[in-house]
Write a structure and sequence with these properties.
4 helices; single chain; Germin-like protein 1; alpha+beta
């Protein structure tokens, strides 16, 4: 019986340890301003930290998020990032923000953030937004129309999108649960990969003629 209790306790301890290590650890310091100095920095969570005693207000500051971005591109939208690359003081804090500008009928194409949940707030205009659940939940589309002041959440890792369905410009702000959430735009990644993915493979995967795949791969794919 003692051995059974021991094995049960060991299993619970292993499970607790695996759950505890499944998320980023809480920071063990007040601040960890990111620097590129490999000689004098301490490597923490993807960035080196400078001496906290040398921190300055500008390490935690960004200006210009009130300025509209240029939406003159293929998709008619532009994302202005404010993450650890723009605010070094965000390092280890697990948050960031973006501004998204949309031309009339502009879109933020289907994409995913590999390291973050996103919460979007519409400041101006009307957006059709949504995300698709995983295979486990039958790839269900969960979508709605947002107006000024509305908020919507895109869960961690889910493929999601936004589309300006109005005749005027639209603006939104998104908060993300990572200092560097990353982005994978689905069409860009699949058809714009370099070197190209074998078109015969993609043709079978997407049930397309390989000639159609080659045509898609020949297009100029860009990220907003």
């Amino acid at each position: 019986m003692t051995s059974v209790h021991f094995l049960l306790g060991f299993a619970l301890l292993a499970l607790a340890s695996s759950l505890a290590s499944a998320y980023d650890p809480s920071p063990l310091q007040d601040i960890c301003v990111a620097i590129d100095d490999l000689k004098h920095g301490v490597f923490v969570n993807g960035k080196f930290c400078k001496d906290p005693k040398l921190a300055k207000p500008e390490d935690f500051f960004f200006s210009g998020l009130d300025k509209p971005g240029n939406t003159d591109n293929q998709v008619g939208s532009i994302v202005t990032n404010v993450n650890v690359e723009q605010i070094p003081g965000l390092n280890t804090l697990g948050v960031s923000i973006v501004r998204i500008d949309y031309a009339p009928y502009g879109q933020n194409p289907p994409h995913t953030h590999p390291r973050a949940t996103e919460m979007i707030t519409v400041l101006e205009g009307t957006l059709y937004v949504g995300f698709v659940t995983s295979n486990q939940l039958n790839n269900t589309l969960i979508a709605t129309v947002l107006n000024k002041g509305d908020v919507f959440v895109f869960p961690f890792g889910m493929i999601h999108f936004q589309f300006n369905i109005g005749k005027t410009n639209a603006v939104a702000m998104s908060a993300l649960s990572s200092q560097n959430p990353g982005v994978i735009t689905i069409a860009n990644s699949v058809f714009g990969a370099e070197p190209p993915i074998n078109p015969n493979f993609l043709g079978r995967a997407f049930q397309l003629d390989p000639k159609v795949v080659k045509s898609l791969q020949a297009k100029f794919w860009t990220s907003n």
